[in-house]
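Fold it.
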Amino acid sequence: MNERPSRAARAAVTSRRLMRPIGGRAPVVIAAVVALAIVAGGAVLLQVTNQMRREADGRLNIHVAGQAAILHDAIDRASRDVRLARQNVVFEDALARTDGPLLPADRAAVEAAITYLGDRYEVDEICLIRTSGLEAAR
């Protein structure tokens, strides 16, 4: 009682399936093509998205590097000028004359020096603050 079909019977069934008219296999073929198209479309979309992301990151890195260089240059120039301003006797003399608010004549000279620094670096406001925390000039 061998219930298994013979090799010849299996070959006959397979050949009948292959000999079916195209109309009989059309739904299977269409489903396979649609599945392949969906997979291929997803792969292409993923690659395009990743490429766009890499290009945008590259542009952003270039922009950030440029802005960092500009900022670094501005900070270097400002630190040189602040060190130079520190050597200005106007600040030292004005701060030495009183422990409180600056005298009116000293205030005018200090404000002129502060205004120069503000104009040079397009800063809206600069303050001269004593070590005690008292604002001496603006």
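The first strand starts at residue 128 and ends at 129.
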